[in-house]
Structure formats: structure tokens, C-alpha cells
Design a protein that fits this description.
Distance between the termini: 13 Å
Number of strands: 15
Radius of gyration: 21 Å
Structural class: alpha/beta
Oligomer: single chain
Order of helices and strands: HEHEHEHEHEHEHEHHHEEEEEEEHHEH
């Protein structure tokens, strides 16, 4: 989106969201513990349909509406309810008083428009990660949310509802870890040679007649319909933030929640398109360093050409270590490990003992639904979504500029 167009949109949408404070009362109703929560979704594509299935597992929940720019989606979602009302324009769906809460699962570059429009319509919001496509949009969405405190807003960073989050946060609060100066994290994947990560087949009906291409572009420069960019939008900067906004943001959000961090003071990211030369712009091999106040460095690395070590985080403190692993394969034994644990640093906690995590955690989607009823804050809040988005966008800005980026530099760049 060109800067002037984006600024105009954000300003207009933010004013609308402020106005929602005056109009939202018409949508408010007190939901009892057994009341049905009626959901609408914007963007029921592949990921959107995954979360639709997850939300329907929550007690007394139904989908009543869906909005998308691709007509194919309306047939695909019939499996989630025969009476789901379909809308080609999300704004028309937002006018419906039958919708209690909106799920935003559209491509990343549309998140802030759908977030601000939903807020202006007086709806509760569940926004898929990453909360926004840019720093400027993150600032606008957080500001609008703060001016509408009665709205329940959750973000799709599921790690912050899990048992490995509950236990880790408890261990940190109890002082078992001590002073933390470094966190190391990683995410590894692989694909068959010649097949890049995220590249999806293009359906035969994906054409200009069945897609509202202008709505998908969302203010970006006009150009002829491109089915590949429409389906595989994750590969290009103007629509996506790449692996940082697809995956790093999840783990950074967990780290932020466990250690109660704010936004980074600086970020540095290196890497490139090394695995598959398939025309993508976003890198598939990445190393990130984030600096935080109070002498803390967070590292994250990722590759799309080796899956042996899965996903993991190690929080390294003076008094102990928290380790969370998912699908990590040991080099010597060949055994795959998953789980979370605490190990004391005997030098500073000589009487400390190993702890194996066993917290059950919450169903992330059910948690949001219950918060719609209770009006409490979801496990993954708008503030967490904001902080993790800023970390992701600072990292990408560093990569694209090929230099270390401070928070102030990043914010100045967003305002240009």
C-alpha cells in the first residue's frame, strides 16, 4: 500500500473505531454462561477453515456469517453450517446484528483494515497472527483498541494458552530462573526438493471472475489479476511478512508472555532465499537478534531445508533454565523429544530440583469464546499481539535495510 493511501486509510478507520464507542451499545448484550456465541469470519481460506473447525469445538458456538473475496470459499464452508450467510464485502457482514464476534483470517496485508472496520462496527475480535502487516498499522490498531475498552479482542497466538506457557510463566514468577540475559529459540522445517514451503496449487476456478482482485490488493498499486500472488501471497513482501510473521511471531509472543517483556529496543536479521529459488521475495533461512531493556537478548533462527530440530525455546537464567521442545530429534539417540521442563543452575540453586512440566493449559479458541461471554481479557491479548508484531516488523525492516534497526528508527520509517 502506498504510504499516503495507507495513512489516509488508517486515519479514517481509526476515527471510525473511536466512533464505535458511541454506537457499539446497539450491539452489546449480556451473554449468560449457556448463551450461544454467534461468529462471523473474514477470510475463510485454508487457515480460516482450520480455525473454524477449532472454534466449533467450543461449547455452544456457531458460525452465522462469512465474508471473502473469492467465491469458492462459500461452497467450502458449508461443512461448518448449512445456514452460514455469505458476503462478498466484509462491511456488509459487519452490519449484521446476528454476529457477536468476528474472526479475522484474511491475508496479512488486510488484517488492519478488517480489524479497524470490525471495531468500528462494535464487534468483538479474534485476529489471526500476526496482528498487522506493518508497525504503523500495529500502532493504529492498538490505539483504536484502547479507545474501545469494552470490546473483547484476542490474537491467534495459541502458545500463550498452552500448558508449556502456564508452567514456564509460573517458574519465572516464582524466581526459579533468576536473572535472564539470553533466550535462544528456533523453528526448523523441510520440504521435498523442488517444492518450496507455502507453495500451494492454484484452483481451476481462481480467476478474475471469481475473485474481487481490487479488494484483495487493499490499496496497493493496480495491476492485472495474478492467481499465483492471490493464492501464494505469503511469498511477497507487499502482502506478507514471510516466516517472521508466520512463525517467529508465535515464539516471540510466548517469550514476551513468559518474561513479561515490552517491545525490543533494536533488531538485527540476516538470511536469504537459499532453500528454493522459486521467485519468492521473503527469506527461507533466517537469523534474528532482538535486544530488550534490562540487558536481555533474544535469538531466533529458522530454516526451510532441515527439520531435524523442530521447534524449541531455551530461557537461560542465572538460577535455572526453562526448555520447551517440540519435535526435536537427538543427534545421538535419534529419539524425538517434546515437552517442557525446568533445570536448576547448581551454582546458584544448589538445592534446586528438575521439574517436568505438566500444566494442562486452556483451549485457546474456547478461551476467547468464554471471554466474549464473561467480558474478560483473552489469554493472548491485543497488547501481546501488538508487542510481538512490533518485534516481527523490526526484524523484517532490518533484513530489508541490511542494518541493525532501533525502535525509534523503525517508528520513524513507519511514519514516512
Amino acid at each position: 500500500m502506498e504510504n499516503k493511501t495507507r495513512r489516509d486509510f488508517l486515519a479514517t478507520s481509526a476515527r471510525g473505531a473511536v466512533g464505535a464507542a458511541l454506537t457499539a451499545a446497539s450491539y452489546d448484550k449480556v451473554l449468560g454462561a449457556n448463551d450461544r456465541v454467534r461468529l462471523g469470519i473474514i477470510g475463510p481460506g485454508a487457515r480460516g477453515q482450520e480455525i473454524m473447525g477449532s472454534f466449533l469445538k467450543a461449547p455452544n458456538t456457531e458460525f452465522v456469517a462469512a465474508a471473502d473475496v473469492y467465491t469458492r470459499r462459500f461452497d467450502e464452508i458449508k461443512k461448518f453450517g448449512a445456514n452460514i450467510q455469505s458476503y462478498g464485502d466484509h462491511r456488509k457482514m459487519l452490519e449484521s446484528k446476528d454476529v457477536d464476534a468476528v474472526l479475522i483470517a484474511s491475508p496479512l496485508h488486510c488484517h488492519s483494515r478488517h480489524f479497524l472496520d470490525s471495531l468500528a462496527a462494535g464487534k468483538d475480535i479474534y485476529a489471526e497472527k500476526t496482528m498487522t502487516w506493518s508497525i504503523e498499522e500495529a500502532e493504529a490498531c492498538l490505539a483504536a483498541a484502547k479507545k474501545n475498552p469494552k470490546r473483547v479482542i484476542g490474537v491467534g497466538q495459541q502458545h500463550n494458552s498452552a500448558g508449556y506457557f502456564m508452567d514456564a510463566r509460573k517458574w519465572v514468577k516464582e524466581g526459579l530462573v533468576g536473572k535472564v540475559t539470553h533466550v535462544e529459540s528456533w523453528m526448523s522445517r523441510n520440504t521435498p526438493k523442488g517444492k518450496g514451503q507455502w507453495v500451494r496449487p492454484i484452483p481451476a476456478d481462481c480467476n478474475a471472475q471469481n475473485v474481487n482482485w481490487k479488494a484483495f490488493l487493499n490499496g496497493r498499486s493496480d495491476r492485472p489479476f495474478d492467481a499465483n500472488k492471490f493464492i501464494n501471497w505469503r511469498l511477497w513482501w507487499e502482502f506478507s511478512g514471510g516466516n517472521v510473521t508466520e512463525n517467529m511471531v508465535h515464539q516471540i509472543g510466548w517469550i514476551i508472555g513468559v518474561l513479561d517483556l515490552g517491545v525490543p529496543t533494536s533488531a538485527y536479521m540476516s538470511g536469504g532465499v537459499f532453500s528454493e529459488k522459486d521467485g519468492r521475495e521473503v527469506p527461507d533461512t533466517i537469523s534474528v537478534i532482538l535486544d530488550y531493556p534490562n540487558d536481555l537478548t533474544v535469538a531466533w533462527q529458522s530454516t526451510f531445508s532441515n527439520a531435524r530440530f523442530g521447534l524449541g525455546i531455551r530461557v537461560l537464567g542465572t538460577d535455572g533454565t526453562i526448555e520447551w521442545l517440540a519435535g526435536t530429534t537427538d543427534m545421538v539417540s535419534g529419539k524425538s523429544a517434546s515437552g517442557w521442563s525446568y533445570a536448576p543452575e547448581k551454582l546458584n540453586r544448589p538445592n534446586g530440583e528438575m521439574i517436568k512440566g505438566d500444566a494442562k493449559g486452556d483451549d485457546h479458541y474456547a478461551n476467547f469464546v468464554e471471554c466474549v461471554r464473561s467480558r474478560k481479557e483473552p489469554n493472548s491479548s491485543v497488547e501481546l499481539g501488538y508487542r510481538s508484531a512490533i518485534a516481527a516488523h523490526m526484524s523484517n525492516l532490518s533484513y530489508r535495510r541490511k542494518e541493525k534497526v532501533t525502535l525509534e528508527t523503525a517508528r520513524q520509517s513507519a511514519r514516512k
